[in-house]
Design a protein that fits this description.
Elements lengths: L1 E7 L1 H18 L6 E6 L3 H16 L5 E4 L8 H4 L18 E9 L3 H13 L4 E9 L11 E5 L6 E6 L1 H4 L3 E6 L1
Parallel strand pairs: 2-3, 2-4, 4-5, 5-6
Antiparallel strand pairs: 1-8, 7-8
């Protein structure tokens, strides 16, 4: 892959996550019955950062869970015949709650569809909302994010790379050419 452009710096990502936290609070009229579930891998630290921002804004602690969608993917056999299964860890009930699913990038929408299937196995949420740092277009399913940090129209031969301190040692968003 060839580097094409840096589209968000660490400061841009941090500012965007503060804005998204404000939007989530506003749309839900506060934080009552709200929880975040991060889709592995980079959705988890994003969900944790959003929860920290909500705490700074409202003083409310929002529970954060981790969702592993590996077994729910419709392309599992194409990825690996022996998939590595991580663990879903949602240590709080989601029944009757507003669950905000968090991921780094929405592309085809298939990851979100798999996450919805996995979440139904955990419980029955009152509402499920989707928050993504980047929407790059090209969805193949009728799925749309409720909260979008940045819309970045891309071509199919481009890859949006979100890097976070927690997983990659640096925070930024870049576009790479395949």
């Amino acid at each position: 892959m060839e580097f094409k452009a840096k589209i968000m710096s660490k400061e841009d990502v941090e500012r965007t996550l503060v804005r998204l936290a404000h939007q989530i609070i506003e749309k839900n009229k506060g934080t009552e019955n709200l929880c975040f579930v991060g889709i592995k891998t980079r959705g988890v630290p994003l969900a944790e950062r959003l929860a920290q921002n909500v705490f700074k804004i409202e003083g409310s602690r929002i529970p954060v869970g981790t969702l592993d969608i590996t077994l729910y993917r419709d392309d599992l056999s194409k990825i690996n015949i022996d998939p590595v299964i991580n663990q879903t860890c949602i240590s709080f009930p989601i029944d009757g709650k507003t669950v905000v699913l968090v991921d780094d990038v929405i592309f085809t929408g298939r990851t979100v569809r798999a996450a919805l299937d996995a979440l139904v196995e955990v419980g029955r949420a009152a509402k499920i909302q989707l928050c993504v740092l980047i929407d790059r277009g090209h969805t193949e399913l009728p799925i749309k994010a409720n909260y979008v940090g940045k819309n970045i129209p891309t071509s199919l031969d481009e890859v949006v790379s979100v890097r976070l301190e927690e997983t990659d040692g640096v925070t930024d968003v870049c576009i790479n050419q395949i």
